[in-house]
Every structure is written in structure tokens, then in C-alpha cells.
User: Fold this.
Amino acid sequence: MNKSENLIKHIHSLVPKDRKVKIMNVCGSHEHTIAFSGMRSLMPQNLELIPGPGCPVCVCPESDIINAIKLSKRDDVILVTYGDMLRVPTQQGSIRAEGKNFRMITSPFEAIAIAKNHSDKKIIFFSIGFETTTAPTAAILEMGIPDNLYILSSHRLTPAIMEILVKDADIGIDGFIAPGHVSAIVGSNAWNVFSEKYGIPTVVAGFEAENLLLGIVDILRQIKEGIAETTNVYSNVVRPEGNTQAQRIMHKYFEVSNVNWRGIGYIPDSGLELKSEYSARDARKVFELKEVKEEKIPGCICGEVILGKAYPSKCKLFKKACTPQSPTGPCMVSQEGSCNIWYKTN
Amino acid sequence: MCVGVPMQVVEINYPSGVAEARGVKRNIGLQLLPEGDVNIGDHVIVHVGFAIEKVDEKMADEIWKGFDEIFRLMDEEDEGA
Assistant:
């Protein structure tokens, strides 16, 4: 018997026999491993592995995307952003379909290069994502960016959305698998609040199937022992205090703000905007962007999927009007989106 | 977007550098790690072009092993689709 088989056997022996157990992951890469490895089919029937809000493009507000489209139509602007963002649908189409002057980048470094090569243009970096992408954006600010480069920040904080999830009794989370690389930035200590304040076993795990299984075993062990701790089975990468240099640089340039999460709504202190002393670099202020009212996509249940209240297969559009080739909702766009992953594995 | 890839540092010009994985070299940012903490030959996890943490060679190999397995399973899904 190999190690994974042993871990699965252990999971079966540890799981409570008298009730359902829901363990949520909050990282698209975790969901990717769970889905593609076929792990769910090997779990006890009363153990649910639920995908949560682990897809940054899925929660990026429609208003920011529409503003990005509008900015890209200006002759003096080149909008740059990560590839997935170009395809996210809105009431006014996607950046790729409706935008004009835009480029895909894979790193904030490329935004600097484009700004240097187009000194006659205003380069707007539509910077989105959780802590793993916020830190690199803060890093280019620390390194110094050209005067014609502006940041449209749509960054989101993972712990903030997780706190919303635990307060929602409808979801009923029994354990969290905390995201491995977000944890590398914020530290495993950042999740102590969930075990200490809310009594939810929380385990930092990496992205290999075996490591995820180890995390599930540890959550079930805690449930069996009636305790709640924050533990770390990815300790070769994640330190308790995290990456303190990255945290320092992020805090230097960004401050928390009340922001909208697509399909979910406004959550206090859950996003990051540039501090006022850097407003000359803040595209939202320089270009006087106005909020556009979000419109619900008819039939799309992305908001419920992100919150772990519904599986993608419950959506009437899933695999019909909504496919990775022609996504109707944001969760079908990215390889980290639950609907996209389920499309390929279910 | 949030996938972190282990790479080996082959050049350092802090706060930038060059790292390599599977024969592909890429300019990376080292600003998120303290100057002097990263040496040539070190393995780092790279997110959107920036090293976010150092890892030992064994861990880097294990992460790549995990990727290879997922890539294999994704290929199988594509073939079966």
C-alpha cells in the first residue's frame, strides 16, 4: 500500500460516522489537484470537499472590468493585465472582445517594460488577485516604476472572505484547507483566528495530492479529538510568520478598504487600495473612475459557487450556455475557477 | 495566476535576477526576499515573476513531481473529452 492509499484509509477511519463533514479549500490550485486527482470519489460518503473563493478573477467586480474596457478605448492608454482577466464576461462584454488597446502580461515586470517602450502612452496595470499577486505589485512600486505607469488595484484579502464564510451558518464549514502560497506570504499564523475564535480546524497544505490528503487527515484528527488548531503540513515552504519582507512592502503601498466581491457584495476591510500618498500612481484616482452598477448574469450562480453553497453542476448554464470556450459566468473563465475545473473533470 | 513555480536562481542582480526551470530561463524579481538571503543555486517559488519564498532542492523536486502528475491527469482528461 502506498502513502496516499494509507492516508485515504486513515481518512475513512477518522471521519465521524454520525454526521456530514464539510472541508473547504480556498485556493484554485488546491481545487485543481482535488478535482484532477479524482480525490473526491475516494472520500467517505459523508465527507464533502467544497471549493471556496479561490479564484481571483471570479470575484473581481464587474465595475472594475468595465472601467478597464473603457480605459483601453482611450487612444493615450494601453491597459495591461493577466491573461484570465481578458476573458471575464461583463454586461458590456470582456476586455478581449470589447477593449481596444490592451496587452496580456504574466508578470508586473512586463508592465514596466511596456511603459518604458511606450513612453508616449499611459500604461494602466489592472492588478488583481489575492496576496500572491499583491506582493509582486507592491514589489515593482518599491523597485520604482516609470511615471507613465498606473495601477488599477482590484486586490482582495483571503482571510477577510474566509471570515464571511465561517459566519454563514448555511455553509457550515467544519474545516479549512488554507491556501499554500497565500500562506507563504501571510504566514500560517494568519489563520489562527479561525481555529481560536471560530473553533474551526485549519490546515495549511501544499498542492500535491498526498500533501492535501495529509491536511484532510489532520482536520479529521482534530474533529475526532474535539479540538481546533491551525497546523501546517506545508512547513517546508510556509513559515508561521510568513514572508515579513513581502508583508512590509505590501503595507507600505496598500491599505485595506471596503470592496465589492462579484456575486457576493461589499465586505468591509476585504480589499486593498493604494495609500493616498501614492495616489499619483492610482488609476482609480488619476482617471476619476466611477463605480458601475453590477448586473447579475441571468441564470449564473457563480456567487453561490464561490461561497461553497452550490456545486457548479447545480447551475442551469453549466456545460450548456456556459463553457470554457464561451464562458457566461466568471467562474468558467480561469483554470482556477470551480466551474472551469468541474467542466473538465465531471 | 496564483500557481507558484519552483525555479533555480542562476543570476543575481538584486532586486532582480534570473531563474531557470525545465530549461527555461526567466527574469525574476527578488524584492520580496531580503538582499543577501538568496544565493545562486538556491531554489525559490516564483509567482507572477517574483520569488516569494526559498525552498530546498528536495521540496522543489517534490512540487514539480506534483505538477507532472497533474499535467498527466489533465492530458488524460483532454484525451478522454
In short: The domain at 5-80 of chain B is CATH 2.30.30.140 (SH3 type barrels.). Residues 29 and 52 of chain B are 9 Å apart (CA to CA). The longest helix of chain B spans residues 57-80. Chain B touches chain A at residues 1-4, 15-16, 27, 29, 31-34, 45, 47-50, 52-53, 55-56, 58-59, 62-63, 65-67, 69-70, 73-74, 77-78, 81 (CB under 8 Å).
